[in-house]
Amino acid sequence: MIITKENSIWIKPYLDSNFIISGPCSAETRDQLINTAIELKKIGVKIFRAGIWKPRTKAIGFQGIGEEGLKWMQEVKTITNLDLAIEVANAKHIELALKYDIDIFWIGARTTTNPFSVNEISDSLKGSNKTILVKNPIHLDIKLWIGALERILSSGISQIGIIHRGFSSFYSSPFRNFPHWDKVIEVKKKFPELKLLVDPSHICGNTENIIDTIKIALSLKYDGIMIESHINPKKALTDSKQQVTPSELKNILKEIKIDKFNIDKNFFFDNQIDFINKNITELIKIRNSYEKLKK
Ligand code: PEP
Ligand code: MN
Fold first, then answer.
1. Which atom of ligand 1 approaches the CA of 239 most closely?
2. What percent of the chain has pLDDT over 70?
3. Distance in angstroms (rounded) separating the CA atoms of residues 241 and 250
4. Is 190 in a helix, a strand, or coil?
């Protein structure tokens, strides 16, 4: 398996401005999708994302709109000429996504953890020339992430990229999913030719820390951003706290362009140190409870 610049040809058409994939967490209604896409097109987004099948934690509630949403996505393409990206988790999703001419597929954090699913996806995409982006697995298991990238590359799929969406953690922190930047840099070093995107929406879980998170990623030489946006985030059926409106996204893009390297280093280092302190405290508590059990 040789990884070369050829594996990143997919990104070339999008590189004339900041590279941004944006759109709602979930496709919910035809109007929501089309109205969001029209606004995003106006601010220079070139790839429109939406979740069609949602990997929800709970069995009740909205699980994604399914195939109907793919028809709306096709309409989005006709109206806006935006390229389309969706999450896929199995062969059936890929079969439908190919039928509805989706351009870019991403493997979600829950699916990256499962080598059977990654093999199934790779097999279904063979020979299709589509781009596949691989999110980090939910937990801090870098080997699983690397394994998924290797599986896809060795199955002959050539267009591939990496998305950093943070890692779930037992410890409390200002993030929904702790970034662990140091670990992601290890993966980047192993695959220097693959494009690396940051997903500040799933890292932050809110809209407040998004700008700092993007700035840190850019200062670490990430290649682009996948960010969730919704025409009316308050009404969103999934991830409503972390989605921005297209006009908020416009301001975010302005701000990161103006002072790309004026990063709040305290925010960066303080929250990492705080996280480590909490780990130490928690570990001491666990150790003490074992000491008690021994007595
Ligand atoms: C998403 O992008 O909406 C999503 C479900 O992401 P993740 O797999 O990172 O949780
Ligand atoms: Mn989401």
1. 3
2. 96
3. 18
4. helix
CATH fold for the domain made of 5-263:
TIM Barrel (3.20.20)
**196 touches 216 (CB < 8 A):** no
Per-residue pLDDT tens for 206-265?
Answer: 999 999 899 889 888 899 999 999 999 999 999 999 999 999 999 999 988 755 555 666
Number of helices followed by number of strands (H, E) in the chain: 11, 8
For the Cβ of 93 lying below 6 angstroms from any atom of ligand 1, the answer is: no
Q: Cβ neighbours of residue 156 under 8 Å, at least 6 residues apart?
A: 126, 127
Distance 54 CA to ligand 1 centre (A): 8
User: Of all atoms in ligand 1, which is nearest to the CA of residue 55?
Assistant: 5
**Angstrom distance (rounded) from CA 247 to CA 42:** 10
- How many whole angstroms separate alpha carbon 46 and alpha carbon 203? 22
